[in-house]
Specification:
The structure holds 2 protein chains of 2 kinds. Chain A is of the alpha/beta class. In chain A, a hairpin with a 2-residue loop joins strand 1 and strand 2. In chain B, strands 1-2-3-4-5 form a 5-stranded antiparallel beta sheet. The chains are: A alpha/beta, B alpha+beta.
Chain lengths: 111, 176
């Protein structure tokens, strides 16, 4: 009986720790760039997550964030190239392609 | 010298003078810009290991309105600073993931808007009434700088008066 309780407690603890581990782990979310659009164009993330930008188009694109406090330019992105952007700060920011006016996405980062 | 010839000569001189004035030489770096202008934004550029400080003159900032073209006399400066690097050569980051700028200024890009300046450029190049100039970190003019890239890149922000950050900062209310 004691053995059964210990076994149950062990597995419960293991499951709990795995569950907590999964929640604490940062996610990587993909945004595709093609046809003059980011897809998805709206994204909700947690601080610590990473956005993976894939240029799935046949022209150069770019990731530029003009929002104060988040502003970054990760440079020209050629077709097929993958670039990542970690998001560490809570808030909301806009992503735009410096090469194509009107190509935008919104990202909201929660704690 | 007869009168028509004199008039034609004068017209030629005026025209040539106009062309000579177009270009980076008419754009100056404001004195003591770090004290006299407003720093409205910092942009990380990790691929080049630089942080860009963006400035605007207070006269323009005082009258800029969301959604409208920027006023004549607007001066915008993009100051490229070397970023602090770790032992591996990667940019250091704050807890918010922001890069850290050093005091080392590498390059200064200035764009200025004056009524009529754009008329000196062909339509496929013209950026409204803006012109551009480049300076070294010590403030001396970089005479060999080419600005075709500035015109080409800024042209695709024609809906925001040819600016990437300031018009957007005004729209967001973060420009002061």
């Amino acid at each position: 009986m004691k053995h059964d309780w210990c076994t149950t407690a062990f597995f419960a603890g293991l499951l709990l720790s795995l569950g907590l581990g999964a929640n604490a782990a940062a996610d990587e979310v993909t945004i595709t760039m093609a046809g003059g659009k980011y897809s998805p164009a709206s994204l909700r993330l947690k601080a610590g997550d990473t956005i993976r930008f894939i240029n799935d188009d046949n022209v150069d694109h770019n990731v530029f964030v003009p929002t104060k406090g988040f502003s970054v330019d990760i440079g020209k992105q050629e077709p097929g190239k993958v670039l990542t952007l970690p998001v560490m700060k809570v808030g909301k920011f806009e992503v735009e392609c410096a090469l194509h006016e009107g190509m935008t996405a919104m990202v909201e980062v929660s704690p | 010298m007869n009168r028509p010839f004199l008039l034609a000569t004068l017209a030629g001189i005026v025209t040539l003078s106009g062309y000579a004035m177009a270009g980076p030489e008419r754009v100056s770096l404001p004195q003591n810009y770090r004290d006299s202008l407003i720093r409205y934004l910092e942009v990380d550029r990790p691929d080049r290991k630089i942080v860009r400080f963006m400035y605007v003159n207070p006269e323009a900032s005082a009258v800029a309105r969301p959604g409208e073209d920027l006023p004549e006399g607007t001066v915008l400066i993009m100051e490229d600073r070397a970023a602090e690097l770790d032992a591996g050569g990667a940019p250091k980051r704050t807890v918010d993931g922001r890069m850290v700028a050093t005091d080392k200024i590498l390059t200064l890009f200035v764009m200025e808007k004056r009524k009529g300046w754009g008329a000196d450029y062909p339509a496929d190049k013209r950026n409204g009434d803006w012109d551009y100039a480049t300076f070294n970190g010590d403030g001396t003019r970089r005479a060999d700088a080419k600005h075709d890239g500035c015109f080409a890149c800024h042209k695709n922000r024609s809906q925001r008066d040819f600016t990437f950050t300031y018009w957007k900062s005004v729209a967001d209310g973060t420009h002061k």
